[in-house]
Amino acid sequence: MPTGHRNCKLFITHGGIHSSMEAVYHGVPVVMMPGFSDQHQNCKLMEEKGMGLITPHETITGDILYITIREVLNNPR
Q: Which GO-annotated molecular functions does the record name (predicted)?
C-alpha cells in the first residue's frame, strides 16, 4: 500500500476506515477531509490521538491546505 512506502511522509485522506487503518498501521501522519458516513468519526478519533489534522473540504483553499500540511509534517508526534 502507498502509506507503507519508505518515501511516504504524509497521507491526505477522506478518512474512510481502510485508509485510516493503513495510516495508523504504518505510522504515517495524515491530513483528513471527511465527507460523510463514518469518516467524520474516524477523523475525529485520529486527530484526538495526534495522527493528523482535519481540514473541512467545504472551506479548503490552497493556502489552508499548505499550512495544514506544513503543520502536520513539522509536528514531532
A: UDP-glycosyltransferase activity
Closest CA to 39 of 17, 65, 10: 17
Q: Around Cβ 32, how many Cβ atoms within 10 Å? A: 28
Residue 49's nearest CA partner among 32, 69, 68 is: 32
Q: Which three cell numbers stand for residue 29?
A: 501522519
Residue 32 scores a pLDDT above 60: yes
Considering the entire predicted model, what is its pTM? 0.88
Task: Just give the CATH number of 10-73.
Answer: 3.40.50.2000
How many Å is the Cα radius of gyration of the chain?
12
Taking the domains of the chain in order of start, what are their residue ranges?
10-73
